[in-house]
């Protein structure tokens, strides 16, 4: 691990979660001498699995698939791994693949602007300034907590925190606690804290479809077997991948098949919740799959505890000593825990990245993120965005998508070297064609037609989050860098001096 920044680096990766580590490992595996540096705002690698330490944090994708294909792991203790275990895995990957040697921690990105003349990104960080030829933004979409604009929040005299920044120094034992939100995080931590609080008020805006979590413990004999026969891990990963790909038929290709999932979810709800009134309050009014399906075996049990109250009228305001629902009833509480998610369709990093004319990526997007192959944006040369627009999944592992993007980035580096060009800038027409195809494919999916309001839809109402079809199609699209859809630039004086010469479309074939 390095503590100082160089004046210039060829490839700068921002972030050291699955995305940043995946692309860095890919580049280093192909070229161990590559001039690549990773900056991280925190003090360790791990991204969301470092930051999210709330009670019960776990993965909701089978860990055999939610891990790097190039770094198989035989010692997962559960089929759905717990957060601390995933963080340990990522730390091991950082050590094993030389990433830690290229890492600068405590180094948040403050801003970056493309210099058209020198063909470099001018980068400002907490530890100083530097330039880079290629900038990889791997900050993730679930990295910045979202707090609701609730009237009176600033007047509350009790304790508040977001689930993504859990305050372990604050003891919830015997406290009266309000939880705001019933999404993927709340469904994990609420069952964990309910036994220790004196009273728990769970504020639900919209109920979620919940299905059983088919989790089990992996015993020592099973793990020993995986160590002795590593090929079985690859076979298991392949089987889970193939099974998960069939979900696309339900969510995107044939939404009518979602009746199968609906039957499972409603049957599970009826089995767990005998009270018809409560069951009605927990039944969503939208098609299953429109929002993220949640996995839990103890969510419904927890909501039926005598010391837990489901408040489905929503949170209207906050007073100095309590919370007020939409019906005007106040409940006095000692603490408020927000499980209100993140800002995936408005990634904060987009406000930090500027094109040569000074406009930020967020300004270019205008509230509706668009990219080519989910990775590059016109007017932002040599910028690669990991987990970019329309790369999120409703059926499989995002790690698979990140590895696909990593291959695309590495292929771009090789192609630029082979053609002796300093920068590439995707053509606006390529971006438009790619997104028009995405919009057409998304039009009939459950995410667009299921009757819900989800974070998949951006401020304009467009689905700028989801990948609409099989993931192997995305891998095929990103297997090799298609420079024919890019404009190329050269800096005659090298990375630090000289003016860039932009080629015209007619010149591309000659480069």
Automatic annotation (TrEMBL):
The keyword Repressor does not apply. Coiled coil: none annotated. The keyword Repressor does not apply. Keywords: FAD, Flavoprotein, Oxidoreductase. Residues 492-511 are annotated as: Disordered. It comes from the Bacteria. Signal peptide: none annotated. InterPro entries: FAD-bind_Monooxygenase_sf, FAD/NAD-bd_sf, Flavin_mOase-like. Residues 498-511 have a biased composition (Basic and acidic residues). Belongs to the FAD-binding monooxygenase family. This is Cation diffusion facilitator CzcD-associated flavoprotein CzcO. It comes from Rhodococcoides corynebacterioides.
């Amino acid at each position: 691990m390095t503590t100082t920044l160089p004046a210039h680096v060829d490839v700068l990766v921002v972030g050291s979660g699955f995305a940043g580590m995946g692309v860095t490992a890919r580049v280093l595996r192909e070229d161990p001498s590559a001039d690549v540096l990773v900056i991280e705002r925190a003090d360790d690698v791990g991204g969301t699995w470092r930051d999210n330490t709330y009670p019960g944090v776990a993965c909701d994708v089978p860990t055999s698939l939610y891990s790097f294909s190039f770094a198989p792991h035989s010692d997962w203790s559960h089929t759905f791994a717990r957060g601390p275990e995933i963080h340990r895995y990522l730390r091991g990957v950082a050590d094993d693949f030389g990433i830690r040697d290229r890492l600068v921690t405590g180094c948040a990105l403050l801003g970056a602007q493309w210099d058209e003349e020198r063909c470099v990104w001018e980068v400002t960080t907490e530890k100083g300034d530097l330039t880079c030829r290629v900038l990889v933004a791997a900050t993730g979409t679930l990295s910045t907590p979202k707090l609701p604009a609730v009237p009176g929040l600033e007047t509350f005299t009790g304790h508040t925190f977001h689930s993504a920044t859990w305050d372990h120094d604050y003891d919830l034992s015997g406290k009266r606690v309000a939880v705001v939100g019933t999404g993927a995080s709340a469904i994990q931590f609420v069952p964990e804290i309910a036994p220790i609080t004196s009273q728990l008020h769970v504020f639900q805006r919209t109920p979620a479809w919940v299905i059983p979590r088919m989790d089990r413990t992996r015993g020592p004999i099973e793990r020993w077997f995986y160590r002795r026969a590593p090929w079985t891990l690859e076979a298991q990963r392949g089987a889970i991948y193939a099974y998960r790909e069939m979900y696309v038929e339900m969510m995107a290709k044939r939404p009518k098949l979602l009746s199968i999932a609906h039957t499972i979810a409603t049957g599970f709800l009826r089995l767990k919740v005998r009270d018809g009134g409560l069951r009605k309050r927990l039944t969503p009014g939208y098609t299953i799959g429109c929002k993220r399906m949640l996995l839990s075996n103890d969510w419904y049990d927890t909501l039926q505890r005598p010391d837990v109250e489901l408040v489905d009228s929503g949170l209207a305001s906050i007073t100095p000593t309590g919370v007020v629902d939409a019906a005007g009833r106040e409940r006095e509480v000692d603490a408020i825990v927000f499980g209100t998610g993140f800002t995936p369709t408005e990634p904060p990093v987009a406000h930090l990245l500027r094109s040569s004319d000074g406009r930020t990526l967020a300004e270019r997007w205008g509230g509706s993120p668009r990219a080519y192959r989910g990775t590059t944006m016109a007017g932002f040369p040599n910028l690669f965005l990991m987990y970019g627009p329309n790369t999120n999944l409703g059926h499989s592992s995002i790690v698979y998508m990140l590895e696909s993007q990593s291959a695309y980035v590495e292929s771009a580096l090789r192609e630029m070297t082979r053609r002796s060009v300093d920068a590439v800038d995707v053509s606006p027409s390529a971006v438009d064609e790619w997104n028009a195809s995405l919009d057409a494919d998304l039009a009939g999916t459950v995410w667009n037609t299921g009757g819900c309001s989800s974070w998949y839809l951006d401020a304009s109402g467009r689905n700028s989050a989801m990948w609409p079809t099989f993931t192997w199609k995305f891998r095929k699209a990103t297997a090799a860098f298609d420079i024919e859809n890019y404009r190329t630039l050269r800096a005659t004086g090298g990375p630090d001096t000289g003016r860039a010469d932009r080629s015209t479309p007619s010149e591309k074939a000659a480069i």
